[in-house]
Amino acid sequence: MILLKSSKKLKELMFKKLRNIPKRSVFLGIVAAGMLVVSGGLLWAATLSIPDIAAFETRKVAESTKIYDRTGEILLYDVHENIRRTVVEGDDMSEHIRNATIAIEDEEFYSHPGIDFSAIVRAVLTNIKNGDILGGQGGSTITQQVIKNSLLTNEKKISRKVKEWILAIKLEGVYEKDEILTLYLNEIPYGGNIYGIEEAAQAFFGKTAADLEIAESAYLAALPQAPTFFSPYGSNVEALEERKNTVLLRMYQNGFIDEDEYNEALEEDVRFAGADERGLKAGHFVMYIREYLEETYGEEAVREAGLKVITTLDYELQQKIEDMVYDYIMENQSQFDMENASVVVTDPNTGQIIVMVGSRKYSDEEIDGAVNVATRPRQPGSTFKPFAYVTAFKKGFTPDTIIFDVRTQFSTNCEPFETAKREDPCFSPENYDFAYSGPVTMRTALAASKNIPAVKTLYLAGQRDSIRTAASMGITTLDPIADANLSLVLGSGEVKLLEMTNAYGVFANGGIYHEPVGILEILDKDGETLEEFEENGERVLPKENALQITEILADRGLRVGTFGAGTALDIPDPNIAVKTGTTNNYVDVWTIGYNTNMSLGIWGGNNDASPVVRRVSTYVIAPLWRKILDEVVERYPSERFERPGNDYSSINKPILTGSYQGGIFSGNTVINNQSIHSILHWVDTENPRGPVPSNPNSDSQYAYWEYAVRVWAGGQKSSLPPEEDNTTYPLDDFIVSGLEEEYQRGDRILFEVAAVFDIDEVEASIEGERDSDSREPYNVKLSTDSLDEGVYTLKVTVLTEDGERLEQTFEVEITD
Fold it and tell me: Considering only CA atoms, which of 241, 189, 176 is closest in space to residue 215?
């Protein structure tokens, strides 16, 4: 007898024997094996303790999740408090909401026996693929969801799923399909304390469920999957829009609506009623916390698991700031054309959110007040500048590095002398006050919020490197490719107030980033801790560089020199740092400041992105920030800021230490100081403290910055070494920059004149209005108050030091 065979021979023998078995026998064997499996499953299922279907009428009682402030005593929100549910008959529900719900939740509702086997298989395969066989997709029918919400627990076990299947089939034997759908629509949550379709229709659209139209029904059918996430008053309205469109597509594919109805509903502009804040304190913050809870623990657990959530919110301070925001906006709305504001206060040492006011009033229907602007991207204006400066400091530049604040064309698609051209493809920004200071330190430029030095600093620091710095400090919304342009430092990217306020906290604490958090502790219904705050800081900036930014932003003298004494930014406390920001189109105005114990950020503007009055943040939103600051520092007082070392002893380039004449130090002597140049002549942007560039012309910006410096220097072009003088410029003309083609009556006409030759005086006139300037930079201001609507000739005359008179004329339109 042969006891063993090689594996190859054994396989051949097995296959041979299998081939000899009749196919009918194989089929019967498979059937028999399947019957054994099914029988075993049925025997196991028979041992399960399944609730009596008669108990369906007795609904399970949910244990409410409660959200508290940081004291654990002030209840901000009870998830089930004042539950709103109005039960209506199926005939009192629009056919559109019934069809929309079936289309998105259970397309085979009218054909399956309570469970959809194909959906279960799809769900199991998906969950296996995702490595979560008990979670993820459940393939639940509407009938199953009715059972799950009524008779069963939340446990994730196969046995619970089997019970759900059995009970769903039993329920289908007791109730008609339309009755089950009616039960479902009367009980599902639509967000907050709103349950059932009748209450949802009233809350969101101010109408009965019977009157819901197609698009409205699609929106409501989109909500139950994740009511807080998809809330039309929250931060994910784009996601809601996509899901609503999916519902409409499913309705069309299932024949519930025709093509014309589908296209009409896609384009319809649906208006939601204002959010209801009954039983809700600090609405924006609570919804921010609830969204986190639902993402972490699930919608069902938040509704029914009896969680106790202790948050980081200082509700006493929150209340005061809510009132201050509302009062300020309502008092100044007409003056500033600004209808909304948002405020965030964080703790720089922990990242805890102390205050979050998302709008002037959560329940304000006029402005969609429930939208939380604190978590929505907006353009930051100049409040982004510190990220570029601190990146430059990390590379080796210093707060005393000299940057020339002169009109400069930055776009290589335009000529260096075309500084009056600002629109694409040109880029020649202006300072907010239309004044230019010549050589300034980075310290002064940042404190005075000068635009041109900021753009140059961003270039020196690197756009992508600056975005990386911002990202390390918690800014999540900037794209390192799409947003990496020179206008970034003027606020062209979009950021969130919450993230910006928290990021400034990194400067406040000397370079440590703490992720923003809103929860101190979460307890389950038995008092066991599920989650607890743990401090987890990470160093993202060298301490010296963070302190350098704080030293600049806390310099009262520099602020007063720029914005004037007695303004909201004239703060006596030397341990308060602050930065303002205004977008070029005056759509967004910001102020962000901090001390060692708090970071306070405020945004002002309009939800529809219409501009505020054409005034900078200092005058529009900073006064409210200052009022709030005085309130906040009473609870979070200032401590002394640590000072940076600012040790320049190892630096051998005067331009990095405050001298605009450049050159290189050799002992106490400056050598190679042949003439005045831009900083690109003296430094390599990647290694500013290293060797002087051997060929600075290889930098694409060199010719542009050099030309601007030569204009400022008054014709010192001839003193440059011949090999560096390889760019030609107009020598017999002057440049007028900042002039618009159209002004409204009452606006001031502001522009600047520059030339490579020496100017003695600039004169300008328009219809009897005159102005002149004999000091550099040559700025001209003309009033339009006396001008009627129409087109006028503006004459600009330049008197040279040689006695010549040069003249240019421009057509300017005045509108009413």
Answer: 241
- H/E segment holding residue 812: strand 805-815
Token readout for 209 is 């469920």
Region of residue 298 (phi > 0: left; psi between -120 and 50: alpha; otherwise: beta): left
Q: How far apart are CA 129 and CA 745, in angstroms?
A: 67
Alpha-carbon distances of 107 from 35, 101, 111, 246, rounded to whole Å? 30, 9, 9, 13
- Give, in degrees to the nearest 5, the angle at Cα 461 between 460 and 462: 95
Q: How many CB atoms lie within 10 A of CB 348?
A: 27
Report the amino acid identity of residue 126.
Answer: T
Peptide linkage before 425 cis (omega within 30 of 0): yes
Phi/psi of residue 407, each to 5°?
Answer: -55, 125
pLDDT tens-digit map of 470-509: 999 999 999 989 899 999 999 899 999 999 999 999 999 9
> 80 near 62, Cβ under 8 Å?
yes
771/780 Cα distance (integer angstroms): 6
DSSP state of 563: H
| Contact partners, residue 733, CB within 8 Å, separation at least 6 | 755, 806
Over residues 274-324, the pLDDT tens digits come to 665 556 899 999 999 999 999 999 887 887 788 999 999 999 999 999 999
Question: Whole-angstrom Cα distance, residue 93 to residue 669?
Answer: 89
The answer to whether 621 and 381 have CB atoms below 8 angstroms apart is: no
Distance CA 816, CA 813 (A): 10
Contact, 353 vs 334, CB < 8 A? no
Q: What is the pTM of this model?
A: 0.69
CA angle 57, 94, 218 (to 5 degrees): 100
